[in-house]
Amino acid sequence: MSSPAGVTLVPPRLRVRTVVVPDPGPLVALLPETDALAWIRGGDGMVAWGEVVRHKAASPADAEEWWTTLVASCDEETELDGAVPGSGLVAFGSFVFDPDNTSASSGLVVPRTVLGRRNGRAWLTEIGVEADEQRPVPCATPVPPAPEGVRFEGGSLTSEQWRAAVSRAVGSITAGQLDKVVLARDLVARADADLDPRWLVGRLSETYPRCWTYLVDGIVGATPEMLVRLEAGLATSRVLAGTIQRTGDGRTDLARADALTRSSKDLEEHEYAVASVAAALEPFCSALNVPETPYVLELPNVLHLASDVTAAVAPGVTSLSLAAALHPSAAVCGTPTDVARGLIAELEHLDRARYAGPVGWTDASGAGEWAIALRCGILDETDPRTIRLFAGCGIVAGSDPDAEWAEAQAKLAPMIGALTTRR
Ligand SMILES: C=C(O[C@@H]1C=C(C(=O)O)C=C[C@H]1O)C(=O)O
Predict the structure, then answer these.
(1) Of the candidates 376, 358, 348, which has an alpha carbon nearest to the alpha carbon of residue 182?
(2) pLDDT, tens digit (0-9, with 9 covering 90-100), for 153-172
(3) Which ipTM did the prediction report?
(4) Which residues contact 280 (CB under 8 A, 6 or more apart)?
(5) What are the sequence ranges of the domains in the chain?
(6) Which Gene3D superfamilies match (predicted)?
(7) Positions marked active-site
(8) pTM of this prediction?
(9) Is 189 in the pocket of ligand 1 (CB under 6 A)?
(10) For a Cys staple, 216 with which of 94, 173, 204, 393, CB 3.0–4.6 Å?
(11) CATH number, domain 14-420
């Protein structure tokens, strides 16, 4: 992101035009080679490209301020009747996990062209258009090449070092310093030629249709965890914590799902995550619904304990302000937050950058979706043949280092699969 952190450039006055379009078919097929942005779930979502303006943000709260000013000076025309979240002026964004422990930066980008589809309605938004400008209608691009010769190199810590870090975290927990901490590890993948993120978006969105597949400024992944989605005054947060790997055998997986719902270690881990989300949402809402017991979310690689927390929020509250309040939840940081953040910085030996930070979009009304950037990789800006993958696990008193290593490996599977599948 190009301007210094926290610097608020005076936003330009933008003309925004939205038209209704026929069903565009698979959204991924429309992504161009450069400046592509994507947000896809179950085939619906948005693909976008070009760049009208961007803001390098110090935090989601700072991004919110800049966005509000931009929205206030924008001329919008739309053919859509009724509010369709994501149509019209939209910004995609991605934020670092911990601004105090990273060399990476956060920001919002406003694309030139957005193609969206939701519940059978498709639209095309053009941003920054002159009154009489006609842009070419987007059409399918050639299928991007599969990565060649991908090999995996070690991450920041060896497996022994990472397991030792987990043991130290368990020690701090049993010593009473904190209740839960999430420790992540990384894995570097290198291909023979530049990686095309469109290939990864295609594979991830096809294999993980229940997840949110995203591509924003070189971070690409398919996350199952929604930090906050805000639409028509209703906020929803999908909280995940407590995980078990799938085996591929239906009966065994059913037994594993059952065991997960009774595992006191996983239920405890889950409880911390739900409590942190409920506490962060509370000040913004008039009604809050926190499910008493989690359900099991089934993904192709893992089973998660999941809770969908919902809240009716006060008028004027935006998705970015909620994301600012919710991040970092105990699903990716720990409890208490500050102690966990400190322990992460001490034990991980890893720059998480935008992994585990909010990723998503906001529209001009403040509606939006901010997921947690999990099951992802960050393309190396200086060497596009290289991508760094990340995965982490919640550590509580009952955690076992070997089991946590295996769990993190299972969470790396979506990206490893996307990098190594030939079609
Ligand atoms: C930290 C990650 O996942 C988080 C940790 C989980 C757990 O420890 O059970 C489950 C889902 C996520 O909240 C990750 O995928 O990298």
Answers:
(1) 348
(2) 989 999 999 999 999 999 99
(3) 0.99
(4) 325, 326, 329
(5) 14-420
(6) Anthranilate synthase (3.60.120.10)
(7) 180, 225
(8) 0.96
(9) no
(10) 94
(11) 3.60.120.10
